Amino acid sequence: MSDSKLSVCSECGSKYIAASSKMKAMCPECASILYGYENCDHVFKDGRCIKCFWDGNRSAYIQRLVDGRSDKMDLFRDKYTALQKEFGLGKKMVLSTSENSRVSSRMMSVIHINGEFYFQTDITMKKYHQISANNSVALCIDNIQVEGRCTELGHPLGHAQFCAAFQECFKGSYDAYTALENERLFVVTPHYIERWVYKEGVPYIEVFNIEKQEYSCSQYSGK
Ligand SMILES: [Zn+2]
Ligand SMILES: [Zn+2]
Question: Average of pLDDT values for 152-180?
Fold first, then answer.
C-alpha cells in the first residue's frame, strides 16, 4: 500500500487509493452511488478493501440512498415473483412481430419457465422471418403486456424442459408439430411488463421494468 497515493473521500471520510477512483475527492464506493461511476469490486481484509483502501463506512446520506434502493429492489422482486407465480406454466398468448413498417400478430401456445416465454414455430412462417429481421417482440394475454427480445434456440426436441411442459399443456400441438423438421424453438426474454389492474373499480397500471429492476403502480385517470 505504501506506493499508492491516498486521498480522503469528501463524502464518507474514508481514506482511499487515489488511483482506484475516477473522481478526485471521492472514493470509488461513493462515486459509484452518487454519480454512477464504476465501483471497486471490494475485497475486505482487516476492515479495509485491499483494492481501494475504503474502510466500509458510509455517510448518513449515502446510507439512506442505499437503503432506499434496496427497498425498491425488494419491492420489485416481491411483485415480480408474485406475477410469475400467478402466470402459471402454459398460456395462449398473442405474439406480435414486426419487420420494417409491417406488424403482425397471432395466437401462440406459450410455455413460461422462470420468467421467460417459450414457443415453437415453423421456419417457413412469416413470424420466423420477422423475428430473424427484428428480434424485438411483444406478447399479450388478458390484462398483461410483455415486451422483450426473442432468441432462437434450435429444434424444440433439443430442449427437454420445454418439451415436457409443452406436452403437458398443449398435447395436441406437441403431437402434431414438435417433432417436425421445420420447427424451431424461441425464447422471449422480457425487459418490460405492464399490467392493468382494478382496485375497487379504480384502474391502475402496474409497470415491471425488468432491466432496471423497478416496479411502479400508478392510477390511470383518462382525460
Ligand atoms: Zn467515500
Ligand atoms: Zn474497494
Answer: 97
